[in-house]
Amino acid sequence: MVQTDWDGRYYHIDQILDTPGPRTDEGFMAGNGVKDFLRNQSKILVIGAGGLGCEILANLALTGFKDIHVIDMDTIDISNLNRQFLFRPKDVGKSKAIVAAEFIMNRVPGVKVTPYFGKIQDKDDEYYLQFNLVICGLDSVEARRWINATLVNLVDPENPESLKPLIDGGTEGFKGQARVILPTITSCYECSLEMLNKPTAFPICTIANTPRLPEHCIEWASVLEWPRVHGDKKLDTDNPDDISWTYNVAAARAKEFNIEGVTWSLTQGVVKNIIPAIASTNAIIAASCCNEAFKIATSSAAYLNNYFMLIGTESIYSYTFEHEKKANCPVCGGDSLPLNINPDTTLEELIEMLTERQDMQSNQESIIVNCFKAVISASSAATGGSDQT
Amino acid sequence: MNDSQPLETATTSIQAPSGAPDAKTRRYDRQLRLWAASGQTALESARLLVIPASATATSILKNLVLPGLGHFTLMDDKEVTGADAGNNFFLDGMKSIGKSRAEEGVQGLLELNDGVEGVADVRDIKRVLKSDPEWLKTFDVVVAHNLDSSILDDLADLLWPGTHLVVVNSAGFLAEFSIHFREHQIIESHSETAASLRIDKAFPALLDYAMSLPLDTMDITDHAHIPYPVILVRALEEWRRECEQVNGPSSGQGAPSNAAEKKAFKERIRAMVRKFDEENFEEAESQAYKCWSTTGIPSEVRELFSFYSSSASSSSAFSALVSALSQFAENNSASPLYTSGLLPLTSTLPDMKSSTDEYVKLQQMYRAQAEAEKKVFKEYLGRGQVSVDDASVDSFLKNAHALKVLKGKEWKMINPGSKELLATKLTIQPRESATHLALVAVRSLRAKGVLSPLEVHSDTTKDAPMADALDKDKLKEFLTAEARDFLPPGAELPEEEWNVASGEIARAPSADIPTTAAFLGGLVAQEIIKMITKQYVPISAGNAASSGDDQLGVCVVDLVETWTGVI
């Protein structure tokens, strides 16, 4: 093996690893024990190689994690280059995970980054069980819910190793949040879903009959006119020609209704649901995520309990608090919600009922998983094999 | 998306008229939606000096190079050590060892954006302070990370107040930074508070329109499309007229004030409903509070009127605009019913339940009134000596309700801060203040030679660094003695918070760890962007117009419990 740890390489981080601090757990193995675990034994998964992911990978590599895996299904777009600093103009169109992994391995010797260019759903429980920690830098609520539910379901009370801490970050403009989730122990992603801002949804009748805002005209063009004119061909939000078509149709409608403000940029923003993103906010949140990963992996200091929220628009406001576990959380909660169904209800009808329940906020996929569990539990209850409800 | 730009203004000025944006606009799309073309232009013309090429300093620069800063100079006279190569992502690992830190760092940073100019300066800042002080003043912002006290003191004196000095200090999991400016004016504060719709002080066209609608006889579909401001203005005016019959003339003032009156007012709105599903009336009921939130001049803006009337710097465009605004607030001839106590009307309406025609009609009423009031404003502005372009006037009026003028402090006022203020701060924000004192104390120990200068530490080729020879408990004792000196006699350090802060420093006095460096890199870059673009609100020592002196304007960070705080 090539010697990559030159003299002084870990001078800075070793000040932390050689001595306990005032807020360090007694179990901390200062010195070689903890260094060996961090650098030679721990294995960490990064989900997302975008705005947060690029930052997370760089921080983890410098902090001393040497076996890093990264998953991302996206390819590089020119609009990523204002913040996703492992990518260059020549990389546009390539896999984010692969380019990011190569960059890190070239820059930080001795670090192995294993990329996977695909979906998190492609991987099974066994895959996720191999990691000590998972860090998410995602822009999708659905992907977060999936990995959260997967890691909660992975927990086997008999096997402490099956509990994989999940560190999740997210940003929007000058704001962001980082949190530590210990599946089944602390509040999980699903517990806090109601904290999310509801996405702006315009009623279809407003779009069709009483447009007032430029956004209403754009929605009309993309949601109603596009399928009417193009039939089965889907609007490709990454194709400038499709955006231009939508823009022209929206602009014509806006003119007809005396509405001002339809621009190409707004059209793209509405159609793609673009969220503003800058390097600095991603840096803060990614650093916070990696700092928690480092503290958890090394026990060198207390870690975040359990939610850090930052608002940088007006001075620097941040709020660190313990988000409470929801007793009736559909993913990690022990409580059950009453639901009256008659014996003739089909599974399909049940799923529909559950999807419509506001307090569940479930998507079809997670319901199917949970229904499946319910069916199993009901059948084992019928045979007297379980006391769960 | 509350902090984002109204998108229609975000990119229009630098996009091709045919529609699709050019490559540069596409590259910067996600940030232009925050600070628009005007912010981008400001960023692209800014010049920054950063000293030295530490992990923290290059992390800050990275977050400014990516969005397209104009120019940076990275100043560092040292060579890359093994420690630098290990914690700085913008050096090229082992290959950089022994080469110039500044040159290697600039190379790594310039890869990120070929639209940015970056220069390495391998001189020692101590010498430059003597040989080339005027050149240092040509920068807009100077960032100093973990510099020795003696250099900082001279640098701060030299740069005040023309160039903003950003002082960043970190050790292990703890850090703090401050920005030095005398006064910082912000027009586009991106406040989340919307300007008033003036429901309680309706302008004549709106009032006349609201009163003219035959609510009981008009077409039922039209009735369900009346925008809520019109409903509220009508309901409030009817309420006022009924009150006048009892109490005499109210000259267009007055609104439900107690819980019972407010409840009755909401019932009045409900009674106006003609069909069960009139969502516009439901919306009016939920917005009824707008009738009793009095439209006036926000106190922060009012404070600026007297601040600028007494301030000597009345030759700037900003003070001319504020002066015109204060005259407008005294006498708005475009608003015959309410001639004083109002800011100019803005024509931005939120979305509301309504038909297209009714919404556009309302929008046009607001726009016409806003134009008339702008004319009055521009008359006042024209009487002054300073000419201001129309785009600036429009931006000023659109944001007049959320103007901000901040004050900052000079370095010597916050290093460490006055004894009395620190003693007060320790009782109000103990953990933040204790962390600040611990970071000041360690710098002070270096200046006194109790701890060796930072560069000695990271050079592992030399003899054992002094800090390593110094026992952690001994260092804590020194820090405590140092911190006590910053406090008035009798003032106590908060035991728990001080134990934590001094213990963290003693554990890692010279550690620039990658996660803290990256965290600070983002935090400080955000603040520099806010300063340069003059958009959004940076940290400060408070409002310039308020007389209070209870803030240092220092942002403190603890990455064990993961919190930030401004003291």
Automatic annotation (TrEMBL), chain A:
One Pfam family hit: ThiF
Q: Which key words tag this protein in UniProt?
A: ATP-binding, Ligase, Nucleotide-binding, Ubl conjugation pathway
**EC code(s) of this entry:** 6.2.1.64
Signal peptide positions are none
Name the chemical reaction catalysed here: ATP + [NEDD8 protein] + [E1 NEDD8-activating enzyme]-L-cysteine = AMP + diphosphate + [E1 NEDD8-activating enzyme]-S-[NEDD8 protein]-yl-L-cysteine
Superkingdom of this protein's organism = Eukaryota
So, what pathway does this thing act in?
Protein modification; protein neddylation
Domain spans labelled THIF-type NAD/FAD binding fold: 41-331
PANTHER family assigned to the protein according to its UniProt record, in alphabetical order: NEDD8-ACTIVATING ENZYME E1 CATALYTIC SUBUNIT, UBIQUITIN-ACTIVATING ENZYME E1
Function as written in the Swiss-Prot or TrEMBL entry: Catalytic subunit of the dimeric E1 enzyme, which activates NEDD8.
Name the UniProt record assigns to this protein: NEDD8-activating enzyme E1 catalytic subunit
Automatic annotation (TrEMBL), chain B:
One biological-process term from Gene Ontology? protein neddylation
Q: Where is this region: Disordered?
A: 1-25
Protein's UniProt keywords contain Transcription regulation: no
The reply to whether Coiled coil figures as a keyword in the UniProt entry is no
Compositional bias ranges of the Polar residues kind: 1-16
Q: Where is the THIF-type NAD/FAD binding fold domain?
A: 28-143
GO CC annotation terms, alphabetical: cytoplasm
Keyword entries, A-Z: Ubl conjugation pathway
Q: What InterPro entries would the database entry show?
A: APP-BP1, ThiF/MoeB/HesA, ThiF_NAD_FAD-bd, Ubiquitin-activating_enz
Q: Name one GO molecular function term.
A: NEDD8 activating enzyme activity
Q: Name the Gene3D superfamilies on file.
A: NAD(P)-binding Rossmann-like Domain (3.40.50.720)
What Pfam families does the annotation carry? ThiF
Describe the task this protein carries out: Regulatory subunit of the dimeric UBA3-ULA1 E1 enzyme.
Family statement drawn from the similarity comment of this UniProt entry: Belongs to the ubiquitin-activating E1 family. ULA1 subfamily.
Record protein name field: NEDD8-activating enzyme E1 regulatory subunit
Q: What does the organism's lineage look like at the top?
A: Eukaryota, Fungi, Dikarya, Basidiomycota, Agaricomycotina
